[in-house]
From TrEMBL:
<comment type="subunit">
    <text>Homohexamer.</text>
</comment>
<dbReference type="GO" id="GO:0004595">
    <property type="term" value="F:pantetheine-phosphate adenylyltransferase activity"/>
</dbReference>
<keyword id="KW-0548">Nucleotidyltransferase</keyword>
<dbReference type="InterPro" id="IPR014729">
    <property type="entry name" value="Rossmann-like_a/b/a_fold"/>
</dbReference>
<feature type="binding site">
    <location>
        <begin position="123"/>
        <end position="129"/>
    </location>
    <ligand>
        <name>ATP</name>
    </ligand>
</feature>
<feature type="binding site">
    <location>
        <begin position="88"/>
        <end position="90"/>
    </location>
    <ligand>
        <name>ATP</name>
    </ligand>
</feature>
<dbReference type="InterPro" id="IPR001980">
    <property type="entry name" value="PPAT"/>
</dbReference>
<feature type="binding site">
    <location>
        <position position="41"/>
    </location>
    <ligand>
        <name>substrate</name>
    </ligand>
</feature>
<dbReference type="Pfam" id="PF01467">
    <property type="entry name" value="CTP_transf_like"/>
</dbReference>
<comment type="pathway">
    <text>Cofactor biosynthesis; coenzyme A biosynthesis; CoA from (R)-pantothenate: step 4/5.</text>
</comment>
<feature type="binding site">
    <location>
        <position position="17"/>
    </location>
    <ligand>
        <name>ATP</name>
    </ligand>
</feature>
<dbReference type="GO" id="GO:0005737">
    <property type="term" value="C:cytoplasm"/>
</dbReference>
<feature type="domain" description="Cytidyltransferase-like">
    <location>
        <begin position="5"/>
        <end position="133"/>
    </location>
</feature>
<keyword id="KW-0460">Magnesium</keyword>
<keyword id="KW-0173">Coenzyme A biosynthesis</keyword>
<keyword id="KW-0547">Nucleotide-binding</keyword>
<feature type="binding site">
    <location>
        <position position="9"/>
    </location>
    <ligand>
        <name>substrate</name>
    </ligand>
</feature>
Length: 158
């Protein structure tokens, strides 16, 4: 069984994230969306909120599960018996960072492979930080995030 992990902060989950989840779920038998609890960041949503939102967004995808993790990604993969890391590229500027991370993960565990999916053009401008900023100032984020994310954002900014 091929198990992949799509890791990220998902603060919040965007249409770009959801697109990568849907597309990568077709490439593996099981996809685990790994929500990173990064102590170095100050997220808008708690780890529980991010996990719950992603569970709601993926509830109709039979081979997708959502879990949180902290620490090294390769350790999370071992825990989940996964061997594939899924990453998304928005632009050429993502390549250098993603290459470095992929090579680091491989050096930590050479049984791990990283596959990268190119973000669809309509989502190439998206980032969670852009979504948060637009939402914070009352802008329309309906072309950036799923409706469920908008509900979560409205509760945060009330």
């Amino acid at each position: 069984m091929k198990i992949g992990v799509y890791p990220g902060s998902f603060d919040p989950a965007t249409l770009g994230h959801l697109d990568i989840i849907k597309r990568s779920a077709k490439l593996v038998d099981k996809l685990i969306v790994g929500v990173l609890h990064n102590r170095a960041k100050n997220p808008l949503f708690t780890i529980e909120e991010r996990v719950n939102l992603l569970k709601e967004l993926t509830e109709d995808m039979g081979n997708v599960e959502v879990d949180s993790f902290s620490g090294l990604l390769v350790d999370f993969l071992k825990e989940k018996n996964a061997e594939i890391i899924v990453r998304g590229f928005r632009a050429v500027s993502d390549f250098e960072y993603e290459l470095q991370i992929a090579q680091t993960n491989y050096s930590l565990d050479n049984s791990v492979e990283t596959i990268c999916l190119i973000t669809r053009v309509e989502y190439s401008f998206l980032s969670a930080s852009v979504v948060k900023e637009v939402a914070m100032y009352g802008g329309d984020i309906s072309n950036m995030v799923p409706e469920k994310t908008i509900e979560y954002m409205k509760r945060k900014f009330q």
